[in-house]
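User: Assemble these into one structure.

Assistant: Restating your components, then the assembled model:
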Amino acid sequence: MTMPIRKGSASRIRLAALFALALALVLTACGKSNAAQTAQGGAGASPAATEPVLIGVTGPLTGDNAEYGKQWRKGFDLALEEINGDGGIDGRPLEYVFEDTQSDPKQTPAVAQKFVANPKIVAVIGDFSSPASMAASPIYQRSGLVQLGITNSHPEFTSTGDYIWSNTSNQKDDAPYLAQLAVSQLGKKRLAVLYLNTDWGKTTVDLFIGKAKELGAEIVAQEAYLSNEKDFRPILTKALDAKPDALILISYYNDGALIAQQRQSVGFDETVTVVGIGSIYSPQFIRLGGEAAEGVYTSTRFYPADPRPEVRSFVEKYREKYGEDPDTFAAVAYDGIKILARVMREYGTERKAIRDGLEAVRDLDTVLYGKASFGPDRRLENPHFVNLIVQNGKFELWQP
Amino acid sequence: MLDQWINGLVIGNLYMLTAIGITQIYGVAGVVNFAHGSIYMFGAYIGWMAITWWGWPLLPAITLVLAGSALLGLLLERVAVRPFARQGSTILLLTTIAAGLILDNAAQVIWGPQTQALRNPLPHWHFRLGNSTVTLLDLFILACGVGTALLLHLFLYRSRAGWAVRATAQDREAALQMGIDAGRVSRLSFALAGAFAGLSGLLVGLYFSNIYPMMGASATLKGTTAALLGGLGNVPGAILGAYVLGIVEAFSVEWLGASYRNLVAVVLLIAVLLLKPRGLLAPRRALNPEPTAGTFIPHGRPLRFPRWAAPAAAAAAFALPLALANPYPLQVLAIGWAFALMAVSLNLISGTTGQISLGHAGFVTLGAYASAIFTSRLDLPFAASLVISPVIAAAIGVLLCYPALRLRGQYLAIATLGLGEAISLIALNWDAVTLGPLGISNIRPPDFFGYELVSPAAQYLLALAILLAGVWIVHRLGRSHLGRALRAVREDEVAARAFGVGLSRYKSIAFGVSAFLAALAGVLLAHSYSYIAPDTFTFALSIQVLTMMILGGRDNIAGAVLGAVLLIALPESIRFLGEYRFILYGLLLIVMLRFRPYGLLNART
């Protein structure tokens, strides 16, 4: 064995010192916030009246899905303004800590442990995509911290355990209702269905097709597309060749707007009605789709002109604060905070009390569901829909 | 039928625009520029501001975009290329990745993450062909693509500056000796590349009438595919490649469905790489232009540490859960160990054997799916699956890679990228086995003989133990006869073969062991996450693992581990920065590479 070369040793020592320092920095930075929190958590046994109640939010603020995290934040902030203007949780202000995960399954378990280790966090909202959310669920379940998924429609999301809940639109209701709109109310018989090839799209399309066939419609084309698809001309040409009388979009608003636009350039005309699932309901759909969005039907659980008082107050405050109409992502975020606040006010802010409260609470006032309660699958029940059509650059109420 | 032909030509038009920019820059600067997509996106946003905010007509807006993105190209050259020019093209791979990360995140901060509408200011004139319409914009894009290609050709072949650019691309040393200012040439190339990227970003944005901060990534992937089909550096080839790609994709949608579209594109690319590696329009008498694989990663000598350092570090790592009650850092490190295993396994392919793999996520996905299927659907115990799944994943991985192993350098890198994508697309489309887009949920936590490892400390120790086993395997292998043969392949393939080292066999062994270890990491993560889907392990992961490995240093196991732990812990430790987090991450990466270009634990030879 050769001896290590002498002259390298000084730089080696410097290097080793550098790394020791870097590693120490990283570790203390990881640990620091928690040390501080644990210290305060010790005092938390008898919380001061002014100490805030904290909700942990895990979601995307950077990366591919950042725009949804931003919509969430608008909904959260509005809900908090209302709740804290109305006395907070028994005099304590309600606040949230938003940890950016980029909706990346490699970051969500770490954030979950961070929330779990912080005794001031009493419940968690998020994450956005299924891989990111469900990678963290076992940690929340084992540690007894509620994870409320506000956009998690994956059918298995709540199956991890009794601490995992969701107030998102339930595809078991949404998809069959869309089938009813297209087949029974609009009288369409030959449906071409385009769907996003994700867990959400696949779940929705299966439920939709089941109901549509039951109502007597024929599925003339059924085409999945990848989530990063931008060029829909080939798939639309294929759908047009099947001679449909309606084009069904199981899409988000961004891809929905692209499909609406490109359909005209492959020869779709007014004789083929476009009907989209509720997630296309967003001011963005009209902004991005332009004239091509005209005449598109959708069904949603809420729309800005809905006379229900909880919707009226939400929409008016939202417009005042942000100068635009809210979409489903903002609404579901708003609902998420309001649900947790109601439960905390009635059942206390202990982690377990919040879980039990979600199970016990009845008749929650929600924007999306109206008066609703959680069912045995830990999702909200109470289907309630309105039909909308895009007219003159706006979503308008539509009735058959 | 006619309609799909037209659809293919229309989208091929867009691919062409991007492909010309990419192929030119490669031909001129010899750099695979991962920030190309980010400048493309910035160009689109500059045009959007001009058209939407200030109400400019199209032509002044295009001029502004050309100027703005050329400046951005210069900035990129100054910050992320020039300081590293002497260190070889792999470092440039990393610095341009970091620069792209900074630009993408900066765009999110400046313009917001949401998609913006970009209205086409051209008149809505169009004509019909069959059912389809072709618009004025389609023709305008065609004109721009062909026009810029011609201008560039004139510049390169008719002007003195163009000659200098070409001379430098052919032989930098000789060009320097002839008195060519190589720095000026490099600046010129990047300004041109920037202008090209920006213009294509704007035009593609106009075509889809929307733009968003992350639009660069998928567009450049398609552009690169088209450029490779035509042969890198070959402009007429890029144009042909773009239309071929567009048409093949349109018909793959017609016959197989849109979910198969990218899979077909990948298969087409790999087939062309194998049959005509220099592209569809390659001249027959072609020389071999790619860099010798071994020189791809900067040389360096591992720093020496005392003999007791490695066991001491391992013991300290094992003892950490005793000292640390907080589960959060343990969880961060547990994931760090899994990624370290991936980096160590990639090190065997890239560091030891000198082959670049951009498809490591594919091996991870194979392992994760194999174990999820065995334990959830066939009820195999975790302990058995921990051994069986990686073996099966490695076997499938080697079978898939084998035909590509005779490719070298960047061509192999691109082929592995394609294979990695293909594996995740197969997971998406093969519903019967993988449950398709729904993924596999409720995967059991790791357990041994009925004892479940669920606590953060237990999962941390399991990950650490598996990592150390992997490190031991790679270490032993590296010091054996086999390791020397692999290094011989890295240093000189021709000489290695002359000494009786069968290239494909030895590369397969390296890929096989590496796939085994990467799949092991996949098994670990699948059981820790409890849910996997086709998009759990993505191309971004492959790039990140490569970054970790290069950051640590070539052929340096401890370096790979350190690189992985740092790059996992770094974003966690700067969480307080919120939206600015990945801007700083990119900057730190560039700074680290600036001061330790041979890797953190390697020194100059």
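The first helix of chain A runs from residue 9 to 43.
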